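Thread: Newbie trying to understand structure tokens

Hi all, I'm a second-year student working on a class project, and my supervisor (Dr. K.) asked me to get a predicted structure for one chain before our next meeting. I've only ever worked with sequences, so writing a 3D structure as a token string is new to me. If someone could post the tokens and maybe explain what I'm looking at, I'd be very grateful. Here's the chain:
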Amino acid sequence: MGNSDATSFEKELENYYGDKLGQGNIWQISVPEEMINKSFDRLFGYLLEKKLVALGIYRLPGASDNKYPYVVCNPDPKINISVRDKVFVIGKRISNDLIEEGS
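---
Reply by user tm_fold:
Sure, no problem. This is what the structure looks like when written as tokens:
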């Protein structure tokens, strides 16, 4: 793709999305209480409604049968989310209802 093609594509995106596009940030958040013991695809949809994209989970020891923490990028949609999981998300901002007290 030539430079003029990239510029044309960027203009097309700007025309379609307007000011909705912009820089995002990556955060690690706790699993919202209502999503504990739900599947990752349910969590994904829940966060998408809050304009966040779930990228993966950080599974703390004891989340399943694990002794050590580990990261799962692009988890299986049916993986069960536990209270011992954290979620990596990307978006422009985190809504107040997802921010933990003391963070």
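A couple of things are worth pointing out once you decode it. The CA atoms of residues 53 and 90 lie 5 Å apart. The mean pLDDT is 84. Feel free to ask follow-ups in this thread.
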